[in-house]
Amino acid sequence: MTSMGGETIAHRICSFCEACCGLELTLRDGKVMSVRGNANDVFSKGYICPKGAALKDLHEDPDRLRQPLIKRDGRLVEATWQEAFAEIERRLPDVMKRHGRNSVATVVGNPAAHSFGLLLYIPRVARALGSINIFTASTLDQMPKQLSSGLMYGAWLSIPVPDIERTELLMIIGGNPIVSNGSLWTVPDFHGKAKALLARGGELVVVDPRRTETAEAASRHLFIRPRTDAFFLLGIVHTLFKENLVRLGRLEEHLAGVEDLEAAIGPFAADIVAPRCAIPAETIRNLARTLARTERAAVYGRMGACTQEYGTMVNWLIDVINILTGHLDEPGGSMFPKAPAFAANISGQPGIGRGVITGRRKSRVSGAPEVMGEFPIGCLAEEIEVPGEGQVKALISIATNPVLAAPNGPRLAAALERLEFMVSLDIYLNETTRHADVILPGPSQLESSNYEVGLSQFVYRNVARFSPATLSHAEGQPAEWENMMRLTAIALGKGADADVHRLDDEFLADEIRGRSRGADSKAALHALSQWKGPDRLLDMAIRRGPYGDQFGLNPDGLNLAKIAAQPNGIDLGALAPRVPEMLRTPSGRIELAPEMLIADLKRAGADLARPAPDLVIVGRRQLRSNNSWMHNLPILAKGTFRCTVMVHPEDAKRLGLSHGSRARISSDGRAIEAQVEFSDEMMPGVVSLPHGWGHDLPGLRLTLAARRPGPNLNALFDDALRDPLSGNSVLSGVPIEMTPVG
Ligand SMILES: Nc1nc2c(c(=O)[nH]1)N[C@H]1C(S)=C(S)[C@@H](COP(=O)(O)OP(=O)(O)OC[C@H]3O[C@@H](n4cnc5c(=O)[nH]c(N)nc54)[C@H](O)[C@@H]3O)O[C@H]1N2
Ligand SMILES: Nc1nc2c(c(=O)[nH]1)N[C@H]1C(S)=C(S)[C@@H](COP(=O)(O)OP(=O)(O)OC[C@H]3O[C@@H](n4cnc5c(=O)[nH]c(N)nc54)[C@H](O)[C@@H]3O)O[C@H]1N2
Ligand code: SF4
Ligand SMILES: [Mo]
What we know:
Radius of gyration: 25 Å
Structural class: alpha/beta
Strand order of the largest sheet: 6-5-18-17-16-7-8
CATH topology of the domain at 143-349 and 579-605: Dimethylsulfoxide Reductase, domain 2
Mean pLDDT: 97
Distance between the termini: 58 Å
Bound molecules: ligand MGD, iron/sulfur cluster, molybdenum atom
Oligomer: single chain
CATH architecture of the domain at 143-349 and 579-605: 3-Layer(aba) Sandwich
Strand content: 15-25%
Low-confidence stretches: none
Largest sheet: 7 strands, mixed
Number of strands: 28
């Protein structure tokens, strides 16, 4: 932070999306005067999007909660922090006692993944609660990629990313990074990097049922029938084997399962899969040839590749293609970042590990297997509704709005009303938190320090950056990690008045003792003592990490103080090959043909001839929106209303819809209404509507958002429709009917 003439310049990393742009803020008297991209940031080099600038609006939003709320006579009213925690202590342990530990469910949402004060303390709350009922937005999002990566490389977050600055060919399956700014791939200014790729003669191919902003900027766009990517990719893999295009290169000795894969791929010739995915067989074959013959190429997939019933298979096949064409772990291909801290693939013994397992537990009602320690969020409503031993009776929601973000939101909302007790850690009184008995708001982002625990593992270039708190907390406002520790204390029976700092010290001392011997652990604790809470956990992880000072053994190495002293970040270099060192599979190899996926090919084989529905719906992310929770910020909400359903003019004509009119959209008895927008961006037979809207419910404190509430896309979807392997919800390609209203 530097001060001049009453103004202070501060730097921090934007945590609204995965791009992690470095911001430069100008402050005067504790007020944010402006937010700009930090041109000197070693990673984002000045890039910023409209949401980054909205940090000011979020900080100032009068609707953002600054005081806990407690439900009294059915209304959520302001309370003191002491009253709020006393209420939780009065009611939560009682539910645990009467109904057992599994009766308390925890649901975690997207912003928790961007806030280390929440993320690093979730395991503590979860362990203290001791319930199997954990749900997160991961099963609305990236669980298929986590599972396929876990099975192939041995760690859930060992997810390779395109080395975009050195590639010649990038193929994107179901992602729109020009709008989303990238996901499971931290790549600020994707658009600039894509332009550079094309300028050096490279190719960008986008496979998407909409001609998206990214497709528009690409050298080639292919429409694909939604929910059929597995068949398209199987056709490519089949061609690679059939035409002898497989080139394993350096990875050959580190691979297991090549023959098993080749044997299982038999039924999926390009000619066979073509009608299912609506991409001509010759196009599929040519793509396989181009991928195989291009020296530096990468295939990448995102939401469209995850939110379908073959999500895990699609994400596996994307990596399979990168491997078979010799592009995994090679410069210009798809590579593994090396994070400074917290990654499973930087700790323990290099090259081998325990791998991942799923299904250690099954969900009570549907019998869905646990994946990565959680159940599918699509199972939450039934776990609350269906009586019996282990029924969910209380809920802790952490930075999540599943009433809008999860399929069949209205069913979930009704279920939440039946809970005996609900606590929400959230900054808004919204569609989900209105069901809570207690809401505990976190401080403004500007009042918190932060480090991107997860996203540092998906970077286009290795980097170490830290955001200190820009402003101090409002009087009495605890940090989110302190709220998490107080919940932990209550769940452990230590009471609402426990000294949470001491408890945090005890947890840390235990953890350090578990790892190092007496004198060493004392020295480690002393070295960390300048930090508290998540900062301290971060310092420890960085010191122990691959670039760390190893508590003095490597004096030139990094620690948090050194990183914090560099507001523009520390560049740790371009991605470098990491196989076999990063592998954590029991075999010490990349598992090209995990049993679970080879078995799943039978399901796909039996589904080859499924007829195409007349009309299906897909989602659409928008630049000035972030899932469900940024529609209350003036800078983003202004302008024309964007939550429209895009329909191809031919479809519109057939359905009797006119531009600007309203349409009723229904699916399997569930229905919403939306405003029609004609667009030839759509593949005929496919319409698109953004998700995260539907702010017209009673009892919200979202003044601006409620003025233009929009329809809730997820009200159409069946929460039982999932990828059975990962538990991820199907949120795309769902058959609908559309009729004019009025
Ligand atoms: N149909 C359809 N549905 C989708 C998707 C889709 O593409 N199509 N996308 C899915 C994806 S990828 C995701 S990640 C999920 C997101 O699912 P969720 O995470 O459940 O939804 P969000 O809208 O991101 O809600 C975030 C919540 O966190 C709160 N919040 C914001 N900042 C903070 C903070 O600093 N502290 C605390 N305590 N709370 C905070 C907000 O007020 C809001 O209530 O939605 C999914 N839903
Ligand atoms: N501005 C903005 N940025 C965001 C968010 C936001 O809400 N707004 N959300 C953030 C979050 S939580 C996430 S997870 C990321 C997501 O990041 P992305 O995945 O890049 O974003 P989406 O717009 O969901 O892109 C999914 C694409 O898949 C296409 N698609 C749909 N169905 C299919 C299909 O069956 N097959 C294929 N091939 N394509 C299909 C859609 O048309 C869409 O273009 O974005 C993040 N960034
Ligand atoms: S692209 Fe993402 S990280 Fe960058 S400014 Fe926008 S919201 Fe923030
Ligand atoms: Mo997401």
